[in-house]
Amino acid sequence: MARFKQYSYSQGKFIPIQFDKQILPNTFEYAVHYLIDNEIDLSVFRNRYKNDEVGAPAYDPAILLKIVLYAYSKGIVSSRKIAQCCRENIIFMALSADTRPHFTTIASFISSLDKEVVHLFRDILLVCDQMGLIGKEMFAVDGCKISSNASKEWSGTKEEFDKKCSKLEEAIFRMIERHRDLDKQEKEPELVAREQRYVEKLRSQVRKIRKWMGENEDKPGRGGGIRKSNITDNDSAKMKSSRGVIQGYNGLAMVDDKHQVIVHGEAFGEGQEQYLLQPMVEGTREMLSSIDADDFCKIKLLADAGFHTAKTAKYVFEEGIDAYMADRNFRKRDPRFKDRDRYKTRARKERKSRWFTPRDFEVDLEKETCICPAGKSLYVKNRNFVTSKGYKAVAFMAKKSDCKKCALKKRCLRNPDKTPARQVHIFYGKKKCAGNPFIERMKSKIDSVVGRQIYSKRLGIVEPVFAHITSALGLNRFTLRGKAKVNIQWLLFCVVHNMKKIHRYGLEFT
Hints:
This protein is α+β, with helices and mostly antiparallel strands. It folds into 4 domains: 19-112, no CATH class; 135-149 and 240-333 and 447-497, Nucleotidyltransferase, domain 5; 158-217; 341-430, no CATH class. It contains 19 helices and 15 strands. The protein has helices at 19-22, 28-38, 43-46, 61-73, 79-88, 90-95, 103-111, 116-130, 158-182, 189-215, 277-290, 310-318, 345-354, 400-404, 409-412, 437-446, 449-455, 458-472, 483-505, and strands at 138-147, 155-156, 219-220, 226-227, 229-230, 237-241, 244-256, 262-268, 300-303, 322-325, 362-364, 369-371, 377-386, 391-397, 423-430. The strands form 4 sheets. Strands 1, 6, 7, 8, 9 and 10 form a 6-stranded mixed β-sheet that branches. Strands 11-12-13-14-15 form a 5-stranded antiparallel β-sheet, with no helix packed on it. A hairpin with a 5-residue loop joins strand 3 (219-220) and strand 4 (226-227). Helix 5 packs across helix 7 and helix 9 runs antiparallel to helix 10 (189-215). The two termini are 52 Å apart.
C-alpha cells in the first residue's frame, strides 16, 4: 500500500511576522507605501481632525489611504471586505501596521474625500510628470458608463411616478379584497402572513414615492424638456451602454499618449457626452497649471463622435485648441470604407423579401398619388416633410379602415397590433442650407491625410485605460451614491491607475 507523510490538524504553530519586511521592493504595495509617505502632501488630510486637545485619537490618514488604494488595486471596493482584509491578509496588516480600522471608519473616510482627493490626484500626477511619464503632446478624452448603486426601475418623471403609485395602490386594494373574500375559508397561516408582508412592502413603496414627489421636482433637460429622475440616486441617469440601458454615471478621463497616464478625470450623471468636452478641457487646464505644465493649446486633443456638436467645434476653434474630433459621418467619407455597403446586401435582400418597402408602392409625385401593394390609395399627410438632416419628402398615410381588414398587413406593418395604418415617406431632394463653418472646418481638418493619421491613435490611447479600470481593477459598479461621492470613487481608481504606471515605468520602482 502507498505510504504518506504523517500530519495532524490538532497542533499549533507560532509564526513571527515583521511587518516592514512584508512590504518588499519592486511590488505595488511598496510603491503605494513609498508614495504616501514621501510624495503626498498629507496636511490637507490631517487638517480635518480637531482632536489635538480633546477627543479620542484618530487613525492616521496615511494608513487609511494605503489600505484603500491597495484594496482598490485588487478590486476590493466594499469597506467591510477591506476591514476584513486588515484582519486576515498579511499585506493589509503590514500596510495598516495591524491597526485594524473598523469598516465604518473606512467608509466614512472614503465618502468624505471630496476636496482631498483632488489634491491626492494632483500630487500623484506631479510625480508622474517628474518621472517623465507624461508626454504632454497628445491627449485623448472619452467616457466609460458604469452602473450606479441604484435601480433603473426607480427612474421616471413625476407623472410616471404618479401612475406607478396608482398601480401599486390598485394592487393593494385587490389583495385586500381578496383577503376579505377568503376570510370565511380555511387558509394556511404561512400564506396569509406572506401576503400580508407583501402588502406592507407595497405600501412602503407607495409612501416612499409619495414622499419623494413631495420633496422634489422634475429635472430639467438640456433642450428644455424633462429628464428622468431617480428616487434612490437622483444624480445618476439612465444611459445606453454596451450592456444595455443602465442606471449609472459616465466616468470621463483625459489620457496622455506617452504612458496612458490620466491627467484629469470626473464622473458625470449624463449619458450624452456632447456637453462634457468643455468642462473636461477646463479641468485639465487647471490640473496642468497646478503641476506647472505647458499650455494646453500646444497639445493635440482627440475626441470621438460622441463629443461632436456645433457648439463644441466652435469652442475648440475659438480657444485655439488643436482638436481632432470625429463626426457621425466620418467613416462614410473615408475612402478605405467605400465598399462597406457590400456587406449589407444580404440583409437588405432579406428585409425586402419580408417587408414592403417604399419601392413596392406605386407613387406619382406630380399627381400626389400613392397605391399600396394591396391596391389601396393613400392620402397626402404632409407635402413639406423635412428631416433633421435637410432631406425633403412627401408623407403618405393609409386609411385605418383599409389597413385593419388588409390581408397583407403583416408584411406591411412591423407591429400590426399596435400600428393602425401604414405611413410612407417618398424622398425627392435635400433642402439647401448653409453648413456650420466650425463643423466644416473640423471636417476638412480630420478628413486630411494627417488628420486621419492623428485621429487613428485615439483608440489605442484611451480605451485600454477603461479596460484596465473596469476589468483589471474590477470597477464594474459604483458603490456610493450622489455625484460628489461617486466622483471620489472614480478619482481614487484613476489615482490607482496612475500609481500602477509609476510602479511599472518609474525609475525608482524598476
